[in-house]
Fold these 2 entries.
Entry 1:
Amino acid sequence: MQELLGRISALDPQASLGLRVIACFDELIIGNVNTRGLLSAAASLSGCNAGYRHDLPPRSLRVSPRGEVVASDDGPPTPGSCSAITAEGLTVWIERDGEPHSNDAIVLERLALAVRVRLGGGRREIDGRRDLGLLLDPAVPIESRRLAAARLNLVPTARYRVIAAPLFAVWDEHPSGAEDVVATPYGSIHALVVPHDHAPVPARPIGTGPATDVDHLHRSFRTAVVALRLCDPEVAPSVLADDYGGLVGLLADLPLDSDLPDVDSLDAIMSHTWGSTTVDALVRTSSVRQAARTAGVHHSTLQTRLDTIIAELGYDPLDNGIGRTRFGLASLVWRLRNSRVLDLPAPTRTSSPTPLR
Amino acid sequence: MSSVARPEFDPELKAGLAVVGGVFPPTITPDLIAFMRRSYASPPIENTLRGRAITRSEHTIAGHRGEPIQVSVLRPTGAGSPRPGIVFVHSGGLMFGDRFSGADLVLDWVDNLGAVLVAVEYRLAPEFPDPFPREDCYAALEWAATTAEQLGIRHDRLMVAGASSGGGLAAGMALAARDRGGPALCGQVLDYPMLDDRGVTASTGQFDGVGVWDRVSNETGWSALLGEARGGPDVSPYAAPARATNLSGLPPAFIDVGAAEIFRDEAIAYADGLWAAGGDAELHVWSGGFHAFDIFAPHTVVARGMVRTRDTWVEKILAD
């Protein structure tokens, strides 16, 4: 995988390889992978042998980047030819000849943590999560979250927003702030905390959550993930939850498999080539003429489509009673249910394509 | 959100996806072809061959319609007597990759078994749609057979092998060689082969937007090759071997595939078809495996098992 990491940074020099390493070990910990598997991953990521030695019970193992066990003289790693971490009777190392590579430190740190967890480290380590993961989980007791916030240098009296991005997001500018990968039902998400008045972050795709105090940052994160999932690579590469008022926060609490006939009935409409743009235009405007202008079609064309939509839905999406609300909400939930933003990597920054090697 | 039931990825492989996703997105649409050609280009072959006693020679041969295509021949340095030969067809969804993509895995056959590897630079879709890729491959097979003496390849021990799109093309070569009275083959290695343009299997529907090579990617690849003909009645079994109605008289087949990939069911069906026709097939379905996991995550337990099992079969067929 070292070669793959090299390819990623050749394709996108700004790519956060460290986050990928962290996400990789997060999955290994969650998957309860054994020490040989952990060393294999570390060796594969770094391109050199990786090893560990445990004092009690005495055990040691060295593994090659191909996952093969390397004969060991049982001795400690040779100083100078490798990097090592030793703590509480456990040493892990990677056998780098020469200068360390830029990801060696993070590989080693994650390996040390993962091996400790596998060997039955302390309770908090079994949890396997770091401060930001704890802070953003409402199930964690509030005292623990406040402590985590303090360790992240977040001020209790200040307000912040959480930004949610996939690991493959393209960042034109990367704000400094507490950040980490956080496990969610949608896979590992890159979370970043910025001050509430931070300028919009030029990155895509990203979702930006509402401003809250430290105690409610989990809420900002959940909402940011919904905003992220509302992103569309073409139309809306970045979504601010604020633009939707409380609506996105509402969606954060909605089980997506809940029975919603209004959403189901949009499936047929969205299967038309004109479906998505027409629905979007109807949501954002209040008359056939405005919607036609937004969608860039003649108003008679839009009227025909609207007739089709009314026939399919059984209500008028432009109806000033409850119809508009039903339609707007259903279209948001439909976009969430059919979100592909977490599947589709932004290939690379569009300007100045970088040749491989 | 997907509510489709599907087998989980193996934990080590799932961890690998955090890295793999950066070079090989799960969903490949036509607008990503240019990106994939850069991201899936093989590393310089000199690096891959470093430390191996392998000699490489380059040849320009007549491909489909007699047009020139490039072929590399990789032989054990100093091999005297004729050796077993393998025509190797690379992966890359019919649209990207080059003749050395995934080659490091098959170079062990040159190193350990003394085989001669013939790697073909077949032309890629969509610029070169069907029949270019398969007929370029077939031309390389015929060339390897007719030039066997100069290449130091044994006539009685010639095999085809390929991965993914290359696996489909290798199976197509075996079918064409049978039908056209072409070179006699001693085996066909079909790694997670891309066999069926119709996209109708259960496993095809199980993997959308996850892993490596999902349903949409597969449609992109087959459409690039077949255009409007994809899924229709007029697709050649040499392009999509799942279309073959007669699977008798084929060389022994080795087929491996992941349980967590879209090609699972078509690979199983192809092995089943070979058995039903009285043929010789060995099938391995690797639990928790995403597509081409041996290429992307060779350090994992599952990948080492897959490679070891495959190498054992190839040794059985090819070794002296």
Note: Chain A has three domains: 1-124, 130-253, 261-338.
Entry 2:
Amino acid sequence: MGKKGWFLVIAMLLVLTTACSGADGGGNSGASADGKVKLRIAWWGSDTRHEYTQKVIDLYKQKNPNVTIDVEYASFDDYWKKLAPQAAANQLPDIVQMDISYISQYAKNGQLEDMAPYLNQKIQVADVNENVLKTGIIAGKQYGIPTGVNVLGFQYDPALLKKAGIDKIPDDWTWDQYKELALKAASNKVYFDSSMAADIFFHYYLRTHGKSLYNTEGTGLGYDDDKLFVDFFGGLAELIKKGATPTPEVMNQTKGILEESDIVKGTGIGIWQWSNQYVGLQQVVNRPMALAPMFGPNMEKGVYMQPTMYWAVASRSQVKDEAAKFIDFWMNDVEANKLIKGERGVPISAKIKEAVAPELSEATKQVFEFVASMEPKASPMSPPPPVGSPEVIATLTDYIEQVNFGQMTPEDAAVKFRADANTILANNKQ
Amino acid sequence: MSLRNHQSLKANMTGYAFISPFIVGFLAFTLIPMFISLYLSFTSYNLFTPPKWIGLGNFEKMFTGDPKYWNSIRVTFTYVLVGVPLRLIFALFVAMILNTKSRMVGTYRTMYYLPSIIGGSVAVSIMWRNIFSNEGIVNSLLSALGATPVKWFGDPNASLMMLITLSVWQFGSSMLIFLAGLKNIPHEMYEASSVDGATPVRKFFSITLPLLSPIILFNLIMQTISAFMTFVPAYVISKGEGGPMDGTMLHSLYLFRQAFMFSNMGYAAAMAWVMLIMIAILTAILFITSKFWVFYEAEKGR
């Protein structure tokens, strides 16, 4: 009896320990003698994305029968909650999908591999625009390979624009012209837009003035004239007050319910956002829509190609060659890209862009054309947001909310934001 | 002696083996993590680089340098101090109705308890969001009655009120406990008081409430603790942002943001420990004051 008891305890402990080491071994075994390779890959996204990504993976396995691929996927929020502990335990998947707001953090903490040696070896990048490829460089190293690119713009309903008394969005429109048009729409009882995401568009505005939101080292803000802050956010708050943009009460109320948003209901002309969000929006709006470039002056200086997301390889991976090969397959295989259909942004390879063009839906075609028209004008991207940026963005969003609710002046917000942001970013100083 | 010890150890071994999953689980997932979190609360830790000891730094920041922390405390206390009494009053009210003799009473009890079974879930919160949305049933009712619809998620005060109504609506578990308590009150007492000519109101305050007071204390403590830890509804309804204007930024939600969005694990651990101490103090106060208002029959009513 007693012996049996001990046996049970020991057996249980053994199961526990082997279960743990099993997880360890699986990740590190890599290519074994018989040429079998095991890859782990993780991404976030919607159900559509999970489906076609699995199809691309199946296609890869079919062409490389020696490879098995374990997949892990989640929604955006859950993804990062899962990835952080994996990184802390040195258990990152071999290939991880990276977001621009997180890549600095993972790269600077030594979790990702510099992919520069793989370029034009395992990963062919001959027909990729250099500006685009450079967006994966953090602190001088190629930590990410962009899956595709996005560009900011105004996505709108041309018929509604006419109804508001505006014939068309002028070519090379300016910040002042934008405000005038918005007020004109307001006088015709139509919202011009649904305001702008504070961090993204303020960053754009700063770029048109030759500045950026963060300094190059990521240790502080990248502008020192608070007047820029006051002009931009003061201008937007003014538009809210005059009815060109819904009030923050309304925005909060409808947040996350696309069906209740003004553009879908036909009470708002357009929306400022990334080009890859156009296809989804077009489906819900279900009326002819169009894309317009950002406002100037100096639109060329402000606008940039942003990677929709990156593929990155974990530095602890034992199968980096195979991981690189998979990324190359993703980037350069025509068959694979006919499944992807530009869902992770407009493909960065010029050849692939051409090859998949006939396969696209009308809305996706519009996006491809819009991105193609902006690509020659765009300036290089600023460095990816530094460590601490999620907190900086949350702080900015908080202050702007108070400004929009009329509880704080833009001047006060500018000063307070500067103080808070610099405190948070100061931690990045070595 | 040693032989007997050895034998009893052997005899107990099977028992130990059977409870070992719990012991291992308790150590690995409760006790050890608790001590690690206590350690982390004195460090600056971002999950990637090793924790850095900063002594009382986190607590200093919490109490002197973080207005958002105080806002979250204020919101949480409003939520608890308004929500818990309302919920208990409502639970008692329903329990008394369901305590009457009626044929359908079983069905009613089930129906009223249902929200609590699915309570706290994401699905309920999403439903709640839809009920209070622009075109939701609440606003449709309001406009049908000629009132102006309220921006439930747009107005900082309204959104907290909406969260509180959600918590009041999930009154089922305390209602069941009240129901059990009501059933324990001897019927003769009511009959005797009827003979003496007591009104229903008098009966309620002189018989029901005093005899129910131990149950009220139990419910009060359990509900207070669980209210302090509310997270899911605030997270879902405000889309994780605690807005508008931090009006629904409950302490647990702010803690979550610090830990998983800003990677300030050490700070979040410190917040968790301060909250634990606050709940402990509040519970202690409830226990101490209970001497003055809880009536135990065993004491023969001083």
Note: Residues 225 and 279 of chain B are 7 Å apart (CA to CA).
